[in-house]
Amino acid sequence: MNGKIVTFGELLLRFSKYDRMRLEQGRVFAGNYGGSEANVAVSLATLGDDVEYVTRVPDNPTGRAACMKLREFNVGTHHVLYGGSRIGSYYYEESAGMRSSKVIYDRANSAFFELEPQMLNWREILKDASVLHASGITGAISKNSADATFEALEIADDMGLTISFDINYRKNLWKYGAEPKATLSKMLQYADIVFADAIEYEYMTGRQVPFTATSADYEMPMDEYRDWFDDIHRRWPRCKKWLIGMRNMISSSHNTLTAVLWSEGKVYQTRIYDILDIVDTMGVGDAFSAGMIHCNNAFPGDDQRLLDYSLAAAALKNSIAGDFNLSTDDEVQALMDAQL
Q1: pTM for this structure?
Q2: Residue 236 burial (CB < 10 Å; 0-12/13-18/19+)?
Q3: Across residues 237-258, what is the average pLDDT?
């Protein structure tokens, strides 16, 4: 493995009701720690990577417990900044049958919301790193966190790191006055390798390529994807690899899942997973991102393997409760190889 991987984002406390109840039902909430970039960090550490997670949490039991949870999974927290008065949280209503999931955020005035540029010593944090992973979520939380993200991206770029970016467009988070597409577009100018789902790419480009597979034998319109990604690359020419994850939700427990990769002018496709008996879909996109980063570091130049591995990691996340993908490298390889 070539160097440490650093991920940057807000660490959150997730609240859900048991047994797929609605938020209005029952009396007891289950609590889990998560957040997109933390999910990526845990997944990478579980795959065997050297990972450091950077965030800001309150210096109280909720903040300290959140960092303890990350350390349980071998994620480094040496550069976590303690301050502020509260940890960000969200309420997640799990899908059931034909009912979709629901997310309600409670992140205003959190410790990360109040993070400002120059609070973190990025040159010290990144001195032994090869990759910085960030996402559009930190650009949405507050102007301060957006400015802090640009600071991290600029310094990582200056230091020659590979920059991994998840577009992670969350419409309900953009409340401080910034234009989301313009901010995300500026962030993409720093990216070397990008992940997003079909809805996020559609938002950024205005072009739709639907994924309507109801089974594993669906025929992908690869010419359309090639044209779509060529257009994306013309807009943000720095990026060398664009990965798109696509899900068709047939019911809450039955989804199809696949991905397409554009890499330096070539387009790759992989199989379609027909997934039954889904346990939890939260963090599937983060599992994609982690698989992408892991393979890009471990097997540089093997783009088909990168795509197959990323999809297998994401497919396995559907079988695991909570935000974190706890699938090992052996498990991902076994699922990937079984389908080749």
Answers
A1: 0.95
A2: middle
A3: 94
Task: Give the pLDDT mean for 37-63.
Answer: 97
Which residue's structure tokens are 């319109």? 221
- DSSP notation for 161-198: -EEEEE----GGG--SS--HHHHHHHHHTT-SEEEEEH
- Please write the tens of the pLDDT for every residue from 138-169: 999 999 999 999 999 999 999 999 999 999 99
The tokens for 192 are: 């070397």
Show the DSSP H helices in the chain as ranges: 36-46, 61-72, 122-125, 137-141, 143-158, 180-188, 198-205, 222-235, 284-298, 303-317, 329-338
Question: 160-194: string of b/e by CB count within 10 Å (b at 16+)?
Answer: ebbbbbbbbbbeebbeeeeebeebbeebbebbbbb
How many whole angstroms separate alpha carbon 36 and alpha carbon 126?
A: 20
Mean pLDDT of the chain: 94
d(CA 151, CA 166): 17
Give the Cα separation of 72 and 98 in Å (integer). Answer: 36
Q: How many Å apart are CA 16 and CA 29, to the nearest integer?
A: 5
Q: How many CB atoms lie within 10 A of CB 335?
A: 18
| Planar angle of CA 13, 14, 20, nearest 5 degrees | 165
> Is the Cβ–Cβ distance between 13 and 31 less than 8 Å?
yes
